[in-house]
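Following the same procedure, sequence and fold were stored together, as reproduced here.

>
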Amino acid sequence: MAAAATKDVVCVTGGSGFIGSWTVRLLLERGYTVHATVKDLNDEKETKHLKAMDFADSRLRLFQMDLLDYDSILAAVQNTVGVIHMASPNTIERVEDPERDLLGPAIEGTKKVLEAAKASGVKRVVVTASVSGIIPSPKWPADVVKDENCWTDIDYCKQKELLYPISKTFAEKAAYEFSKETGVAVACVNPGTVLGPFLPPVINASMAMLVSLLKGSNNLLTRRKSFAFVAGCTDVYEDFYMGCVHVQDVALAHILCYENKSATGRHLCVEGITHFSDFAAKVAELYPNYKVPSFPKDTQPGLLRAKDPAKKLINMGLKFHTMEEIIKDSVESLKSRGCIA
């Protein structure tokens, strides 16, 4: 594959993750030099697939980073002109200390990345937010489609002990506050349930959810309390599902927000606003040989369905994969890796 003309040097935190790996790959293909951060440089599960990418030998540098260690962040961000901040806790395990294990890294980690960006002269930062900064929002008018103007109800989340949306909401608001105070341009991407072909050797939680769905589990990951899909909810993800999106679309959305200097604020990133029941029904339709559970029609009470809701990204030229394409790419990837038969 031929590389594009040499472009900027961009830092991608969380570069070994599901979305991060695709972002690194697309940036390299577009001609960028990339500083990608990982948790452990000696862990081949984090590094091998990155080092194997086209152009990695000449334009990829890996850095070991701890979200609460400013010096490790600064080392990765120095000598770059842009930052795409994706690293954030996404654990499906019950956290022993929510402040230390989830809220601290998400919120304080974001602040430290932004501080390192400012200290290094970086003018533009794109942050991976989430639809968990938009929902749950039970007080939003029932007859209005949810969009970037809708914010998660923190009191509701505290009442139900929904830690993940709290962490994502506070981290996103901290990014905007930092931008306002310092002049560093910040844009956020708010993806829904991210699925698609996975590059790392280990699948992420949303793909694990699809595996459980295909295997007929009607109790999908509900035993834990710290991850967006599971915190305090039933198997229909009442407070967490807003629609799905292809991992390559999410990666490209971050790059478009970086390249479009007028892009600011939030960018909803889903192929459509749908209910979890819609997703499960489409999986069952496409793969009738699997024991996919059936669900009530409206699994997300008060959530109005909508086509093409990601107007800001569509106006930047992003053409979203359809739900059918997302499911097919995801299932074929899972089959190729031996995760399902």
